[in-house]
Specification:
There is one protein chain. 35% of the residues are buried. The termini are far apart. The protein has two domains: 240 residues; 74 residues, Immunoglobulin-like (Sandwich). With 353 residues, the protein is an all-beta fold. It is globular. The strands form three sheets. A twelve-stranded antiparallel barrel has the order 1-3-4-5-6-7-8-9-10-12-13-14. The protein has a four-stranded antiparallel β-sheet with strand order 18-17-20-21, with no helix packed on it.
Length: 353
Amino acid sequence: MKKIFQIAVVLAFLPAFTNAQITIQADEVNPLGVFAIQSRDTSIEASISPGGTGMQTWDFSMLDNDSSDSLAFYPADETAYFSLFPNANLATTLDSIAIIYLEKTNDHIATFGTYGTFTIEPYTVTTAFKYDPPQTIIKFPLELNQTYSETVIGTAQVKGSEVGFPLDSVRSITTTNRNVVVDGYGTLTSPIGTFDVLRSTEVEVSYDSIVYLNNGIWTFLSKTTPKTITYHNWWTNQFNLSFPVVQYKISPGIDTSMIWLNEFVSATHNSKTFLDVKISPNPTSNFLQVDLPEGFVGQMEIFDMLGHRMLVQPAVSATESINVQALTAGTFILVLKDKRGKVAGFERFEILR
């Protein structure tokens, strides 16, 4: 089962910095209502290195955009598969292929799992992938020299016919042993800015097992050789975000890549988006005019700053008009999605009453 929860999202955009050692508290993290584009660099320049421990300065300003994904954060109970993850209170969509279910408390953020589309070569299946216990994303307060270890078991189950087996069900089980240490601090510069960070280093050792159900009996089928992946994660406490600014994944012979925040919009920041989108008037009270790129076809959605979707309207013309008279005064985000459901752009606007 392809593990897809390798998300790096964070927001930082500061013109100046110091080498202050930060601590990240739970009340500094609240991603509801955030929409972001994260980019992936798969051909990392030789000069880029995770560096040593302790106080450091990281220059990742030359990171490339080889591919990109969109992310959006919502209340979990307003998503389609909440019943499968009833203890979640936060959810994030990864493009249109997956919804990741999370728990945020005063002690941690952890993931219960994902509902989405996975690849089991040569088949593609849509199902739930659940963690037991939930996998930790961050512990609060996050501070230098923090350490923790955990063993997490991720499970997905599909009908045998979906993966080419004449069986009742097939279950994929991923067992992961994780060791995490916060081992560095300092300043990091990415293509979008410079900011204060803490760095955590995470070593994961995992293996996959396959079991199948036939005539009421579960039977072991196979087990893979353990693989080791190292993640370096750079965290910030700016803009109330809950995921690293940059993530460096090192999996020798399999995948070495870096994921970094490219664009975002939130209550406190409005980024230039991939699409050339113009909205007017801003602020507005009755109607919002949206000028779209030529040939764009998709959907326009309006969200409040808590991630609640308030309006949905097709986008089929170069100029669209949205009636916002039923909405209360406040700050909202217009999100454009293409025909595949992928976030293509976003813009913040105000409604006055």
